[in-house]
Amino acid sequence: MGDIRKSVGIFLISPQKKILLHLRDNNPHIDYPDYWGLIGGKTEEGENSRKSIKREIKEELGLEFKVKNIKCVGKINLKKDNLILKDTILILFKGNIESQLDKINLKEGKRVSFFKIGKLTDLKMVPTFRKFILENKHELFN
Description:
Elements: E1 5-13, E2 19-23, E3 36-37, E4 39-42, H1 49-61, E5 67-78, E6 88-97, E7 111-115, H2 127-135, H3 137-141
Parallel strand pairs: 1-6
Antiparallel strand pairs: 1-2, 1-4, 2-3, 2-7, 5-6
């Protein structure tokens, strides 16, 4: 099966039905530098996906227990030809967030911002994430 990375990502949805996206660092040694993406990251040894996404939220946003209704919504297999690092199995979650941007203590990346679904086509965004959002908008935003 080869060397496959296991990762998680979360679609964080506000009460106003906006999605919180993360502007990745402009580092040429990461996948999709300087693109808008999801909060998430690599699953550590011995972690299940749910534990991993909770850790990533805390590590990246400084939030603990402020994301509610975390639910697995899918899986994407990403191939190395679209990535710098390696083939990846990405487990996707959604959750509800009520925090305001000024309450987020960003610890990774350039910034975070809320977006209406109609604005996603204008963003320099990880294409796989945009496609998943648009194809699953009813499940994500309801």
